[in-house]
UniProtKB/TrEMBL annotation:
Binds 1 S-adenosyl-L-methionine per subunit. Binds 1 [4Fe-4S] cluster. The cluster is coordinated with 3 cysteines and an exchangeable S-adenosyl-L-methionine. It catalyses: 6-carboxy-5,6,7,8-tetrahydropterin + H(+) = 7-carboxy-7-carbaguanine + NH4(+). The keyword Iron applies. Its EC number is 4.3.99.3. Residues 31-210 form the Radical SAM core domain. Substrate binds at residues 25-27, 40, 84, 210. Keywords: 4Fe-4S, Iron, Iron-sulfur, Lyase, Magnesium, Metal-binding, Queuosine biosynthesis, S-adenosyl-L-methionine. The lineage of its organism: Bacteria, Pseudomonadati, Bacteroidota, Flavobacteriia, Flavobacteriales. The gene is queE. Catalyzes the complex heterocyclic radical-mediated conversion of 6-carboxy-5,6,7,8-tetrahydropterin (CPH4) to 7-carboxy-7-deazaguanine (CDG), a step common to the biosynthetic pathways of all 7-deazapurine-containing compounds. This is 7-carboxy-7-deazaguanine synthase. It comes from the Bacteria. It comes from Euzebyella marina.
Length: 210
């Protein structure tokens, strides 16, 4: 396939820059402890300084992969499919989720919401970032709001974001891993004073799994 044809298919979402795919246990948020197949798509310009997958940022370093191949692999392992990144909404997610749904698979997405929402999702985890705020529509349909806490000022940001989501959205505060010893006491105290929030931990890192 010629390069311009590849780029055209990537734009359509029939090819995606696949960084990695793996079967593991969901470690975060509402579905923690659940077996799930993760599809990590390359490409992100949100630029969080504490991001632990910065190698995902440059989409050009990850091979454009046919969604048929991605779905075939996913269907071998789990009914629950988590699409993450990078920022998956950089790309058109409709072809991928249509194919996943055609195989009776449950679709989850983890996104900053920085780009328009595409695709059919059974669960939307919105993890907004200050650098590039979410598109307005996603606040109405997010199932969980997960705010990463690096310092105490992130709690102010968390409240600003919580004011925008729908009334059914579950609210989580999650310590950024590299400063967890410092911010966990802050989060615990905050959640006890503001019980509409819940604590999310990266339990997969404690379990030493992907």
């Amino acid at each position: 396939m010629l390069q311009e044809d590849v780029l055209r298919e990537v734009d359509k979402g029939t090819l995606l820059p696949l960084m990695e795919e793996f079967y593991t246990i969901q470690g975060e948020g509402f579905h923690k402890g659940t077996a799930a197949y993760f599809i990590r798509v390359g490409g992100c310009d949100v630029g969080c300084h504490w991001c632990d997958v910065k190698e995902s940022w440059n989409a050009g370093t990850h091979p454009p992969t046919a969604i048929e191949s991605i779905v075939e692999n996913a269907a071998k392992y789990s009914n629950t499919i988590v699409v993450t990144g990078g920022e998956p909404l950089t790309w058109n997610m409709e072809p991928l989720t249509n194919a996943l749904k055609a195989n009776n698979l449950t679709t989850h997405i983890e996104t900053s919401g920085a780009y328009p929402l595409t695709g059919i999702w059974d669960w939307i985890c919105l993890s907004p970032k200050k650098n590039k705020l979410p598109e307005e529509r996603i606040y109405d349909v997010a199932h969980e709001l997960k705010v990463i806490v690096y310092n105490k000022h992130d709690l102010i940001f968390a409240e600003e974001q919580a004011a925008k989501v729908n009334g059914e959205c579950i609210l989580y505060l999650q310590p950024e891993w590299s400063v967890r010893d410092k911010v966990v006491p802050l989060i615990v105290d905050y959640v006890m004073k503001n019980p509409k929030w819940k604590v999310s931990l990266q339990t997969h890192k404690y379990l030493n799994i992907p």
